[in-house]
Each structure stands twice: as structure tokens, then as C-alpha cells.
């Protein structure tokens, strides 16, 4: 159980260590104790009052994600040690934290534009079949009819249940208006898509027919169905990271965008020679850039992104390679 204690006006923070399958709780530490712990591990804290302010406002564990890359590693096992690489400063961690916060806002701008564009494309495509095409399996792909798990309801049925729950509970004015005016009807697809966050939207895209996905893919640079489905899932994952204020700059991607195979846009061919290219931020940024070139060609998002990456903290202990950036990324046509 977590408790919050106060001592000299400062909250205590719980520290713990994982041993095997068990989590061993260690004593609570005051903000001053936390600073002493960092000092004992070799971190340089030049401005203690300012460090205390950051720890008070942001929290030890959230900041620990940003000084993690600056910890020593065992040369044999590669395991991360408690001690910091010589010369590591508290300011490096907070500078990286600030950089990452602004990075999330810039990425959200691209992701929100793409989310809206994809919603519109899906509505236009499915609406041609039937106003309720999203509810009719014959208008969708075979995969949506498969069970979500063995013996369970179909993926489509589970998706519809979540959509209907949102439609019945949404406080959005358009949803309330529709429920009042048409109490016994289902929302047509061009209204229903407005209820879909990027995650449920990506599930619907994955459940559509390939012929329809080819049509949608043309609006985003000629993407093939499998590529479009993969990229939609990856963008939804990135959107979730940003929305929950999680670390983005070097976070491993659970849903990695497909950047191999036939039909890959020419602007992404340089990633074929980058090891594990799809696992980090650069792949998501590149995919966003490719799609925006077609979906919103006049946007200056690329310039804002490039300008912000130029502010990456200057430290021998940090590198953009950890975010998947090739050394020559600025020379690629994608970013010129």
C-alpha cells in the first residue's frame, strides 16, 4: 500500500527494488534524501533548491526515466547499475524531460491531423455502401468476423459494443442532439466516426476490406492495405503515449510500423538499412511525415519537428540514435 507522508513540508517518496518475483519495499525518502541518494550514486546536482523543486513538482520516478540512459552498465552482462556515468548532471535529466514534453506536443499535432483525416476517409468509403456500413459485416473484411478470443464474440461485435457505449454516454453536443432527435436509430457512419479515438479507429481500419483500404491508402501516398493497417495501429499507440504524458523520445514501440516489404514509399527506403528502425520515435515521425505530405501538404509540421530536434540536449551521455535517428537523417529527402 502506498501512503504519502509529510516531513518539513516535503512529501516522501516510496522506493523499491524488485528481487525475483517479489517487490521489496524500501524506506520512504524525503526530497532532501532523494537528492542525497542521487549524489551518492555520482550525479552532479549543481542547484539543490531547483532540484528539490523539480522533484517536488514532477516526482522522482517520472524523472528517473530521463536519467536512466545516463546510468552505468555492466560491461559483461549489460545490466544497468545504480551509479551514473561520470559527469552526469541533474540538469541533463530535466533538460531531456522538457525536450520530451515539447516533442509530445509537436507529435500530437501531426497525430491529431492524421486521426481526423483517417476518420473522414473511412466515413466516405464506408458510407457509399450504407449509412450503417460499420455495423454490417458484409460491408467489412472477413477478419472482423473472427472471434476476439477462442469461444468469444467476434472482433466486430466487441468493437460495436464499445462504440454503442460511447454513443449512449457521450457528452458531446452532436451525440446528445442525435440521441434526442433520433432516439431509436443508430448513428450513421459519418457521425459515428467522430466518437472514435485513434485506437478504436485503427481497429475499424484493420477490419475493413482490402479494396477499400487501397482506396484510402491512395490519399496517403499510395499505401497498401497491410501498411495502412500497421501504420494506423502504430500511430494510435504513439497517440496514447502522448495523451498520457509518458516518455516518448526513446520509448520502445509496442506497435511498430511496417517499414519493409513491397510498396514502401521511397522516402522511407533509407530505414531499411537502419537496425531496429521501427522500434523508436524516428519511425513514427517518418510515417507521420509521409502521410501528412499527402493528407495535409501545406502544413509546416516538418519544419517545426526539425527545429525542435535541433534543441536536443547537448550531452556526451545522450544521443539521438537512442530514438532511432540515423546519423544522416537530415540529408534524407523526407526532411528537406
Mean pLDDT: 91
Residue fraction in strands: 5-15%
Structural class: mainly alpha
**Based on DSSP secondary structure assignment, what is the total number of beta strands?**
6
Strand order of the largest sheet: 1-2
- Count of the domains: 2
Order of helices and strands: EEEEHHHEEHHHHHHHHH
Low-confidence stretches: 1-15, 19-23
Large-scale geometry: globular
> Using only CA atoms, what is the Rg?
24 Å
Terminal Cα separation, in Å? 52 Å
Largest sheet: 2 strands, antiparallel
- Percent of residues in helices: 40-55%
- Output the number of helix runs: 12
How would you describe this protein?
The protein is about 45% helix and about 5% strand. It is mainly alpha-helical. The protein has two domains: about 80 residues, no CATH class; about 240 residues, no CATH class. Strands 1-2 form a two-stranded antiparallel sheet. The protein has a two-stranded antiparallel ribbon with strand order 3-4. A hairpin with a 6-residue loop joins strand 5 and strand 6. The longest helix has about 40 residues. The protein is globular, with a radius of gyration of 24 Å. The N terminus is likely disordered.
Amino acid at each position: 500500500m502506498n501512503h504519502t507522508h509529510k516531513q518539513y513540508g516535503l512529501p516522501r517518496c516510496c522506493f523499491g527494488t524488485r528481487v525475483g518475483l517479489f517487490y521489496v519495499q524500501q524506506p520512504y525518502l524525503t526530497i532532501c534524501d532523494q537528492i542525497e541518494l542521487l549524489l551518492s550514486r555520482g550525479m552532479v546536482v549543481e542547484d539543490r533548491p531547483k532540484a528539490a523543486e523539480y522533484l517536488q513538482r514532477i516526482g522522482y520516478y517520472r524523472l528517473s526515466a530521463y536519467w536512466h540512459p545516463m546510468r552505468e552498465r555492466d560491461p559483461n552482462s549489460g545490466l544497468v547499475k545504480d551509479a551514473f556515468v561520470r559527469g552526469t548532471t541533474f540538469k541533463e535529466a530535466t533538460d531531456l524531460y522538457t525536450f520530451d514534453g515539447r516533442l509530445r506536443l509537436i507529435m500530437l499535432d501531426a497525430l491529431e491531423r492524421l486521426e481526423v483525416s483517417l476518420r473522414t476517409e473511412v466515413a466516405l468509403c464506408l458510407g457509399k455502401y450504407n449509412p450503417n456500413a460499420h455495423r454490417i459485416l458484409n460491408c467489412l473484411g472477413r477478419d472482423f468476423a473472427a472471434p476476439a478470443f477462442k469461444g468469444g464474440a467476434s472482433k466486430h461485435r466487441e468493437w460495436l459494443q464499445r462504440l454503442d457505449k460511447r454513443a449512449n454516454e457521450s457528452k458531446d453536443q452532436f451525440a446528445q442532439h442525435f440521441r434526442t432527435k433520433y432516439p431509436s436509430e443508430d448513428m450513421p457512419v459519418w457521425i459515428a466516426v467522430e466518437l472514435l479515438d485513434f485506437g478504436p479507429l485503427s481497429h475499424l481500419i484493420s477490419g475493413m476490406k482490402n479494396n477499400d483500404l487501397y482506396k484510402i491508402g491512395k490519399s496517403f501516398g499510395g499505401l497498401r492495405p497491410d501498411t495502412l493497417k500497421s501504420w494506423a495501429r502504430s500511430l494510435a499507440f504513439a497517440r496514447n503515449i502522448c495523451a498520457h504524458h509518458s516518455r516518448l523520445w526513446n520509448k520502445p514501440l509496442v506497435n511498430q510500423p511496417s517499414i519493409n516489404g513491397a510498396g514502401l514509399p521511397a522516402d522511407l527506403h533509407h530505414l531499411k538499412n537502419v537496425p531496429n528502425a521501427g522500434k523508436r520515435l524516428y519511425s513514427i515521425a517518418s510515417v507521420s511525415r509521409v502521410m501528412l505530405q499527402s493528407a495535409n501538404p501545406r502544413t509546416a509540421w516538418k519544419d517545426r519537428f526539425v527545429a525542435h530536434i535541433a534543441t536536443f540536449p547537448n550531452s556526451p551521455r545522450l544521443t539521438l540514435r537512442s530514438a532511432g535517428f540515423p546519423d544522416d537523417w537530415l540529408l534524407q529527402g523526407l526532411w528537406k
